[in-house]
Amino acid sequence: MKKVIQKTIIKNNWFQIEDLLLSIEQWGLTLTKENLEYWINKEYLKKNKKIKNVLVIMPGNIPIAGFHDFLCVLISGHNIIIKLSQKDNVMLPFLCNIIKQENITLKYRIKFTKNIFKEKYDCVIATGNNNTARYFEYYFRNKHLLLRKNRTSIGVLRGNENDEDLISLNKDILSYSGRGCRNVGKIFIPYKYNINSIFEKSFLYQNILKKNKKYMDNYKYYLSIYNMNRVNIKNNSFMIFLEKKNHYYSPISVIYYEYYKDLKKLRDNIMNDKKEYIQCIVSKNFLKGETSFGKTQYPKLDDYADGMNTIKFLS
């Protein structure tokens, strides 16, 4: 495992040891017998159905980001054909070798491919950005397709959060260098809220981010651009806060924020945009279905990306 982690970091300089350990920890906490049985019983998995060959095109923005799709296909009783991202092609094959040793029958249900054009499959699960999504939509137009596009997550502060909440919020912002769809990229804050209180609780992550050259290159680039254009920003030595209304997708190392006065109006606006832009809403007693501070990177098995139920898609 140590060798695999080291090899993964060498192949993708965005990944840090802490990223790999966080991902392993998350799945270690999730894949308990109790959690799996609850999930399976909730989804009413059908038996004796037609076995499908499912092509899964995996993302590479964070370590083993496509593991949930991998799990859904196998637990539904289907065969999986995996097209790995070149940015993350070490950890999953290693885990699959362990899985095959535990259950030899899975050896014939798991296949990796480098050329999807030579494969035969019944349906496709693909994850990519909005540009690659157009290609996927065209190429797989005659296939049953589950397609995920760009998403981001937001935080809503009400002004009564404690220090632990703000430390956890920084985890939601900065884990995986802010590259995941579950990372908070924008924060809504009450009018006259002191945003420095968030900066003050970010110190736990500065050493991790400062040793990530790619992240710091982004930080220095945007810092210089904003300064040259005399844009009013707030920053510490590794993150930038920029006031930006009606925008959700912030660049790496930049967090947008927006003031609000009417909580109900804000809630209505967010719910109108949720389906199109937002993966997670991090808050405390703001709305139903919110994610608790510090928990964005710990989704439950039935917390499907983009709200698309993968099990139902495969049934």
Describe the model.
With 315 residues, the chain is α/β, with parallel strands linked by helices. It has 12 helices and 11 strands. The strands form 2 sheets. It has a 6-stranded mixed sheet with strand order 8-9-10-7-6-11, sandwiched between helices. Strand 6, helix 7 and strand 7 form a beta-alpha-beta unit. The longest helix is centred in the last third of the chain and has 16 residues. The mean pLDDT is 93.
Largest sheet: 6 strands, mixed
Please tell me how large the radius of gyration is: 20 Å
* Rounded average pLDDT: 93
Low-confidence regions: none
Strand content: 15-25%
Properties at a glance:
single chain; 315 residues; alpha/beta; 6-stranded mixed β-sheet; 5-stranded parallel β-sheet; 12 helices; 39% helix
Task: Please summarize what this structure is.
This protein is α/β, with parallel strands linked by helices and 315 residues long. 39% of the residues lie in helices and 17% in strands.
Secondary structure blueprint with pairings:
Blueprint: H1 2-11, H2 17-30, H3 33-43, E1 53-57, H4 67-75, E2 79-83, H5 91-102, E3 110-113, E4 123-127, H6 130-139, E5 144-148, E6 152-156, H7 163-174, E7 184-190, H8 196-199, H9 206-210, H10 213-228, E8 233-235, E9 240-243, E10 254-260, H11 263-277, E11 278-282, H12 310-314
Parallel strand pairs: 1-2, 1-4, 2-3, 4-5, 6-7, 6-11, 7-10, 9-10
Antiparallel strand pairs: 8-9
